[in-house]
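Schema walk-through. Below, the input block comes first and the output block second. Nothing else is stored per chain. Lengths vary across the set, and this one has 164 residues.
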Amino acid sequence: MGVCRRRRGSVRKHEVVHDANPTAPEQLIRAVGLVRFEDRRLLLVRADYQAAFYLPGGKIDPGETEVQALHREVREELGVGLRGADFFGRYVTDAVGQGDGVQVELSCYTGELDGIPEPAAEIAELAWCTREEYAAHEVTAPAIVALFADLDGGFNGEQRAGSH
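--- output ---
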């Protein structure tokens, strides 16, 4: 299946990502993800073609803003609408299952779901995981590991998880 194993130290977190990066990856995938964190559990999904769980969301289509892509992806993957979208953070890391030299720039947003999420489209499974439960999976996404650290410890020392 060609999934990437977790590598320590391969995550960079940004408030702003600059285009002029002398160490740019061979390929950069721009994506958005929804952060729903309740009772120390993060809402995660697994596509039928992936081994790793990741945030509901996906690639940003040409001409779409991050927020437009997030609303579209949440509707497609969870079958519910999304109210609001507040920027949480941005992670640049190796892309799971995409091969060597491919990185993902994951822009994370919080928001409220309109309804009960159910797996839809290519989503095979939906789960609410604690940091420990996620770490126990055989394959994990480096950006999600870093996100859990921020959620458990507060993002940039300013916001506590659940106060977004």
